[in-house]
């Protein structure tokens, strides 16, 4: 097993990895930008190294500085967390070239799956259903128009390198397609440095159902069930839960086995997520694989009792999984709410600032993953997610009631957050009945925000 690991990330996910290291008797090395000098992850690790100024490009994306820090501190492995360098195949290869174990799949496997157009092709070869669309990337407007005419409108133009809901545009008709293509290409170039796009049929009001998988270096692979992430605003997840509404044991087995087959086809190792969208008829289609730990991984951890970060580290160190599919149990119901430092009443404007008073919920079945503390000033330079509240109950209704109670207990003063909005969602009839899809927020946002406004008043 490793003795020392560098964590190439910040915030709650860095803390999450440091916690796993502590429990495993592994020393942790944190890296931080000058804006993060007072961050909890830098305090909590065994050691911390400053890697540059606030802008992510100069610090958390600065491969040279991060690798130098890892080598100078005698680390044997690097955990990339999510975001930043976590899906950068060049970084994975550079780690290997420096004699460091990258905690994730190899750079080549990442290229095969991280490029969403290439991943679609791979899935088709292995009989995993994909949304109708282009065979790989489209290189011209003409080619895109031909594909769209064949599959029928509306279509989505999607960035091959995309993530976090960016680089995606809808075209309702051939008239919209050229502008959708240029907008998606421009956003993809600025966000991911790569303007390649592909076409997919738009599935109206689908559900987003994803499967967590783990694969070791000895051919062992399991799935750990699904997460329903349909509660989204602008294709970004707000609330996740498991089990998903109407996912029967038989369907779970079928979708989970397809997920494992897809991962093994690519020679995948580590923790990964296969994302599907599901139409109103219950047909499901692969949309992408995330080759990293995900924001919502605690949902699966609380449902199955499997520590996913610990497993990532064990797999990277060459250990076998130590359990099989038949050992995986799904117990009760789990919900996660993402708390972002954003003001829903003011168009979700980011609200960085000083946390004047902080109180996290506790009690039976409640987990909070956060790097906030009393007096901490959140940074305008990075992602606005400041906490994740995760609850587990014996039934879905118990989990909903527990989450309402947890959010009522939580106090974050000094900054605006999405806490109250999440609380309102938990009282919405469609949510309580479990009958919601990715259009829920779009459909109900005005009504929810009006209720928030009147609460504030
Ligand atoms: P996805 O929406 O792609 O399924 P997640 O919900 O796990 O994935 O994360 C949303 C996107 O935003 C991902 O690309 C993730 O890497 C990125 N992201 C989320 N939180 C952070 C953060 N704190 N710092 C940097 N990137 C982040
Ligand atoms: P990202 O890499 O940014 O996470 P995804 O391909 O996972 O991008 O898509 C993000 C979200 O957009 C999905 O969770 C889903 O809500 C929506 N979406 C993606 N593809 C389709 C599609 N073909 N039809 C309808 N909605 C889609
Ligand atoms: Mg996605």
Q: In terms of structural class, how would the helical and strand content be classed?
A: alpha+beta
Q: Cα distance, first to last residue?
A: 56 Å
Uncertain segments: none
Which strands sit side by side, in order, in the main sheet?
A: 13-12-9-10-11-14-19-18
- Give the helix tally: 15
- Portion of residues in beta strands equals 15-25%
Quantity of strands, as a count: 20
Q: Provide mean pLDDT, rounded.
A: 96
The small molecules bound here are:
adenosine-5'-diphosphate, magnesium ion
Bin the helical content.
25-40%
Principal-axis shape: globular
Features:
15 helices; about 35% helix; binds adenosine-5'-diphosphate; binds magnesium ion; alpha+beta; 20 strands; eight-stranded antiparallel beta sheet; about 450 residues
